[in-house]
């Protein structure tokens, strides 16, 4: 494993930088190192906020790294802030790489601003859930690249996605790093292709910071596992095939997806790009890595997850029906989230149910980690939806008794969910320095691997 000497110089961050702070630091870096760092506005967000690119180095290869592809995922932005400083001020470090680095700290500027309510204190899952925002799939930068696959035809990339498309088409990056992170669990990776040479690094790296690998349920049933906690990157075609198999002949998967494909899928169509994703958790509970056998099957654990998902959806549907007459702005980002939920979740739940009942791999005994994912972590992610629901209700508060009663229902549901989580979790918040360090070292080892492979 290379570059671990950098860990000591990663600051002991106590908070996440806001978009304004990130932008200011980028502009100041370019002023401090005018011969080494170039910063330019590559486009504007849907909300007319600038999207800045830092260009550092003059190598023959291009590396494109972008943070906040989902706006609740600022770990990568922090990593890029550190990496840009190091590339600018350390000639020896920069000269190890034959890359021109193209760094975008925050690609979804507008959505990231909607998460800043928890950036200064991410220690509590309650504060995180109460201030969380994540857009529907067709408004996610990572999942709005053009695609044509069977009945799915998506050609409405967001302005932010168009910024990435232009860079990918012009620079044809040899290395691309879409900087994602999860909320709860362990560390896991996605790669464009099998890289056996790096598996030991991927496996041992989290342990340097007392972080586990994610060994429970994968993010999606159709993922191709290359190694424990290492998966092959996928595009929307794989999601389409999963839905087609599990929805039945009367449902068009395109009506459920409504979005495009991934950055890796797009890059592979225009360049010989190797992509990496390193998923990091904000919160840790030791059960995420417990591979001992539980007393129930995976099917039973998945059924529990499914039933709680149905109950959560039914509650959201009830609240949305009640609040509909009071909605002031139907273009609100929170309203658009739940409009999409109401349109797509019933079919997604049906596909989930059919998969659970028909997949023979679920008959075996579950591990403790798999049970934990299905019974606890899934509830954590449902709390995020309830947090957004409360934010929708607050922005439509008109002082009426009717809306106050609806808000009380949502608040009580949120409190019940938080009480369940607080009673069933034994979690700690992972230090930001540890999260930044893992994404940094993983990315640099992949960049080095590509450089050596192609030399």
Automatic annotation (TrEMBL):
Gene Ontology BP annotations: proteolysis
Superkingdom of this protein's organism: Bacteria
Matching InterPro entries: Peptidase_M14 (IPR000834)
Keyword annotations from UniProtKB, A to Z: Carboxypeptidase, Hydrolase, Protease
Keyword flag tRNA-binding: no
Domain Peptidase M14 stretches: 16-302
A Pfam family that the UniProt record links to this protein: Peptidase_M14
SUPFAM superfamilies recorded: Zn-dependent exopeptidases
GO MF annotation terms: metallocarboxypeptidase activity; zinc ion binding
Protein name: Zinc carboxypeptidase
Organism: Mesotoga prima MesG1.Ag.4.2
């Amino acid at each position: 494993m290379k570059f671990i000497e950098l860990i000591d110089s990663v600051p002991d961050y106590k908070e996440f930088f806001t978009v304004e702070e990130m932008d200011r630091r980028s502009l100041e870096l370019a002023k401090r190192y005018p011969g080494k760092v170039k910063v330019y506005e590559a486009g504007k967000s849907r909300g007319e906020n600038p999207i800045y690119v830092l260009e550092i180095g003059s190598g023959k290869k291009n590396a494109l790294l972008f943070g906040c592809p989902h706006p609740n995922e600022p770990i990568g932005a922090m990593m890029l802030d550190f990496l840009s400083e190091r590339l600018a001020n350390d000639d020896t470090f920069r000269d190890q790489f034959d890359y021109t680095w193209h760094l975008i700290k925050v690609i979804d500027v507008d959505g990231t601003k909607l998460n800043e309510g928890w950036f200064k204190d991410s220690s509590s899952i309650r504060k995180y859930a109460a201030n969380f925002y994540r857009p529907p799939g067709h408004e996610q930068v990572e999942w709005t690249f053009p695609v044509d696959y069977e009945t799915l035809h998506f050609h409405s990339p967001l302005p932010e996605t168009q910024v990435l498309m232009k860079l990918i088409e012009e620079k044809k990056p040899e290395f691309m790093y879409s900087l994602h992170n999860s909320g709860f669990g362990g560390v896991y990776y996605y790669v464009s292709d099998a890289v056996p040479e790096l598996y030991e690094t991927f496996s041992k790296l989290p342990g340097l910071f007392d972080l586990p690998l994610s060994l429970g349920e994968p993010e999606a049933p159709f993922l191709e596992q290359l190694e424990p906690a290492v998966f092959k990157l996928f595009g929307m075609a794989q999601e389409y095939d999963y839905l087609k198999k599990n929805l039945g002949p009367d449902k068009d998967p395109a009506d459920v997806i409504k979005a495009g494909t991934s950055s890796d899928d797009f890059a592979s169509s225009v360049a010989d790009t190797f992509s990496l994703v390193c998923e990091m958790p904000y919160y840790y509970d030791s059960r995420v890595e417990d591979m001992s056998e539980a007393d129930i099957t995976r099917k039973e654990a998945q059924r529990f997850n499914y039933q709680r998902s149905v109950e959560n959806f039914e509650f959201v549907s009830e609240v949305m029906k009640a609040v509909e007459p009071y909605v002031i702005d139907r273009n609100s980002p929170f309203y658009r989230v739940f409009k999409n939920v109401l349109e797509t979740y019933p079919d997604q739940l049906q596909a989930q149910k059919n998969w659970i009942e028909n997949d023979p791999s679920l008959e075996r005994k579950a591990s403790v980690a798999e049970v934990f994912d299905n019974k606890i972590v899934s509830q954590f992610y449902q709390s995020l939806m309830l947090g957004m629901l409360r934010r929708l209700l607050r922005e439509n508060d008109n002082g009426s008794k009717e809306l106050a009663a609806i808000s009380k229902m949502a608040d009580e549901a949120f409190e019940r969910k938080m009480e369940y989580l607080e009673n069933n979790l034994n979690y700690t918040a992972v230090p930001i320095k540890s999260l930044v360090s893992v994404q940094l070292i993983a990315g640099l080892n992949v960049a080095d691997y590509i450089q050596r492979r192609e030399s």
